[in-house]
Structure prediction request, 147 residues.
Amino acid sequence: MISKSTRYAKQGEVARNWVLIDAEGAVLGRLATQIAMILRGKNKPQFTPNSDCGDFVVVINADKVQLTGNKAAHKTYYRHSGWNGGLKAESFRAAMEKHPEKVIERAVRGMLPKTTLGRKQLTKLKVYAGTEHPHAAQNPVKIELEA
Prediction:
């Protein structure tokens, strides 16, 4: 009898690549799902759910990301300090003016596992508002995302 066992990727044997994504004109949710897939490593054949086998992702032009429909006027981000009356609200437009990087980071964080592994995978995401980034030494490969 031939043993057909499943092969799982170990932590040290996964080749990590650097990926560059241009967010100009991209829809926020569709961009975030594809970034989360790359961070988890679901685009690789050796994907293992309980280990970090994803790539590093550099996102540029985060200030040019868009929302569909009329959501840009109505979307609100909430956070709570834990104290009474500590609920803070911020509109999408105000968030894009102050910190456009955090908008993409928050969208991707919601699509990753809520575990220590998901937090570790989120550290491989680097988001920048403009076209300049300090990761040129890693030679990130620019990829075009599906529309």
